[in-house]
Amino acid sequence: MPVYPDAAALAAAQDELRTLPPLVTSREILALRQQLADAQDGRRFVLQGGDCAESFADCNAGVITNRLKVLLQMSLVLVHGLKVPVVRVGRFAGQYAKPRSADTETRDGQTLPSYRGDMVNGPEFTAAARVPDPRRMIKAHARSAMTMNFVRSLIDGGFADLHHPEYWGLGWVEQSPHAAEYQKMVESIGDAVRFMETLAGRTMQSLNRVEFYTSHEALLLPYEEALTRQVPRADGWFNLSTHFPWIGMRTAALDGAHVEYFRGIRNPVAVKIGPSVTADQLLRLIDVLNPDDEPGRLTLIHRMGASQIAERLPPLLEAVRRAGRRVLWICDPMHGNTESTHNGYKTRRFENIRHEIEQAFDLHAAAGTRLGGVHLELTGENVTECLGGARELTEIDLQRAYRTTVDPRLNYEQALEIAMLIVRKRGAIAG
Question: Which residues are noted in the entry as Mn(2+)-binding (predicted)?
Answer without folding.
Answer: 52, 335, 377, 407
